[in-house]
Design goal:
Layout: E1 2-4, H1 8-18, E2 28-32, E3 43-47, H2 54-69, E4 76-80, H3 84-87, H4 97-110, H5 114-122, H6 131-134, E5 140-145, H7 168-177, H8 184-194, E6 212-218, H9 220-233, E7 237-245, H10 249-266, E8 274-280, H11 295-307, E9 313-319, E10 331-334, H12 338-344, H13 349-354, H14 358-365, E11 368-369, E12 380-386
Parallel strand pairs: 1-2, 1-4, 2-3, 4-5, 5-6, 7-8
Antiparallel strand pairs: 8-12, 9-10, 9-12, 10-11
Helix pairs in contact: 5-7, 7-8, 10-11, 11-14
């Protein structure tokens, strides 16, 4: 069993509890720092996220070697979840972990979608982009928890057991589009790939995937369907706006604020009380260094500014893994009096949004959502409640 992602330890524990006692089970569960669990038959390792580190590189190297060593009569059970892209940090020969960290940092700040970020990662990795499955001679059974819009397995943990439809050219185009200048070693490898001097990731239809079975077992859709039931059980109509909402967080908030104002003022297109529920993953393009926050708390801050204290409207946005960006919160909540309370404390909401300091803003108000590690990850969860 080889697991990687924020849910890896929890998934491995579930396997241990149900695996037959008389059947051999060995392996590794690689997860984020603070996400480990007391496993008995499988070893767990913690490493860096969202920035890759040496611990992840060492673990990924060991996992790739284990996949290559599995005998054809055995089976590799892969447990994959969001966060695996950073954790499985095994760069190609000639590229260092420092190089990989530099590219990751710039991509995360650029506003690139996770699919675009992972396209670059897959072309700098020895284990992602289908290469883990390709290294295994035994049957592969992959169970996947999706944290990406559309649930495309090739993008979850950068698809270590999935065919990769992207190319070196795609990776280069993404870096150019976001004006990212990679370290020299990264540039050298990508140019070699363009010239055909480096092997491409295995593509759809490749023979290496003939003995691979993959199933997405949890996704954002399930989380928002569960939320819908909770609201309806409490007499509140629930409307799902989508499980794959993407875009710049502050701009998505403007659109949803307009819908909320229409409902509050005119009762269309839905009558209050109603909960507008959505999932997916927005982005934040960092234009000014120094702020703290993430896409969920930035969404809530922008939403608050657009609603301007509109009565009867409350909201929450949180990442289901428990961490919004690099801070210790999952997200934040909004109430009709949020801006008034902020003004009383001398907080400038517009300044906080401009400097990407949504964390500092909501921390001062006591309105952060802090859950700690949830050990799962089905993308972001947003609700706007209009009463």
């Amino acid at each position: 069993m080889l697991g990687a992602g924020k849910a890896a330890a929890a998934m491995a524990l579930a396997v241990e509890r149900t695996w037959p006692e008389d059947r051999k089970l060995v392996g590794i569960a690689l997860t984020r720092y603070g996400h480990g669990l007391p496993l008995e038959r499988v070893r767990w390792i913690e490493a860096g996220h969202p920035m890759p580190d040496a611990a992840g590189e060492t673990a990924a190297r060991e996992m790739l070697a284990a996949a290559r060593a599995i005998k054809p009569m055995d089976m590799m059970l892969a447990l994959l979840s969001g966060g695996g892209s950073a954790l499985l940090s095994l760069p190609v020969e000639g590229v260092t972990i420092a190089d990989l960290r530099a590219v990751t940092r710039d991509l995360l700040k650029s506003g690139a979608a996770i699919q675009e970020i992972n396209t670059v990662r897959k072309h700098l990795s020895q284990i992602q982009g289908g290469r883990l499955a390709a290294a295994c001679k035994a049957p592969v059974r992959a169970l996947v928890i999706s944290d990406v819009a559309g649930d495309g397995a090739t993008h979850i943990a950068s698809g270590p057991c999935s065919p990769d439809p992207t190319t070196f050219q795609d990776a280069v185009d993404i870096l150019n589009r976001f004006e990212i200048k990679p370290p020299q070693a990264v540039l050298k490898h990508l140019i070699a790939g363009l010239r055909g001097e480096c092997e491409e990731t295995p593509k759809p239809g490749a023979a290496v995937f003939e003995n691979v079975e993959l199933k997405v077992i949890a996704s954002a859709r399930g989380s928002i369907q569960g939320a819908t039931k909770v609201f309806e059980q409490n007499g509140v109509a629930a409307v799902i706006l989508g499980d794959s909402v993407t875009g710049e967080a502050r701009e998505v908030a403007k659109v949803m604020a307009a819908i909320a104002r229409e409902i509050r003022a005119h009762g269309t297109p839905f009558q209050p009380p109603v909960a507008l529920i959505s999932g997916g993953e927005c982005t934040v393009t960092v234009r000014h260094a120094g702020g703290r926050g993430g896409r969920c708390s930035e969404f809530v801050l922008s939403l608050g500014l657009e609603l301007a204290g509109l009565a009867g409207v409350h909201a929450i946005a949180a990442d289901t893994d428990g961490f919004d960006g690099t801070e210790d919160n999952a997200g934040a909540v909004l109430a009709p009096d949020t801006l008034a309370r902020a003004q009383a404390l001398g907080l400038d909401a517009r300044k906080a949004l401009a400097s990407h300091d949504s964390y500092g803003f909501f921390a001062a108000l006591g309105d952060l959502v802090v859950t700690g590690p949830t050990r799962t990850n089905v993308n972001d969860y947003r609700v706007i409640l209009i009463v």
